[in-house]
């Protein structure tokens, strides 16, 4: 496994969304991750636009806004945009870099093929279900957008 792939594997394994994935699933996911750098002020996800990718924050911070209201800040180890990969609906929030950032981008088409060919979907669905239950009970631990 290449050094970049090993780093991807290690970092992805620390993300809540992927904690229930097997090592084999994480390896397959690491293979479709692209490193992306953005500058402060760059829009990562735009509310209302249909998602074509998801992001894992490796370095830096971003603001999450719904309309004109900041509803959260995301940082290293957190993910944004994953719901759009699953439901193909417009994004529910705008995510803008507060600092220079390094991200792992997961392309929507490549992710869909991965879901079709592996058991990774079960782990993802379980984790998303836990998030929804936490939000329903007012205990949102980590918000993802």
Show the helix and strand layout:
Blueprint (H helix, E strand, L loop, with lengths): L2 H12 L8 H9 L1 E6 L4 E3 L7 E7 L2 E5 L2 E6 L4 E2 L1 H6 L6 E4 L3 E7 H10 L2 H17 L9
Antiparallel strand pairs: 1-8, 2-7, 3-6, 3-8, 4-5, 4-7
Helix pairs in contact: 1-2
Walk me through the structure.
α1 crosses α2 (23-31). This protein has 145 residues and is α+β, with helices and mostly antiparallel strands. It has helices at 3-14, 23-31, 82-87, 108-117, 120-136; strands at 33-38, 43-45, 53-59, 62-66, 69-74, 79-80, 94-97, 101-107. It has a single domain (3-136), classed as Jelly Rolls, CATH 2.60.120. The protein contains five helices and eight strands, in the order ααββββββαββαα. 28% of the residues are buried. 37% of the residues lie in helices and 28% in strands. It has a four-stranded antiparallel sheet with strand order 1-8-3-6. The chain is globular and about 40 Å long. A hairpin with a 2-residue loop joins β4 (62-66) and β5 (69-74).
Short description:
This protein has 145 residues and is an alpha+beta fold. The protein has helices at 3-14, 23-31, 82-87, 108-117, 120-136; strands spanning 33-38, 43-45, 53-59, 62-66, 69-74, 79-80, 94-97, 101-107.
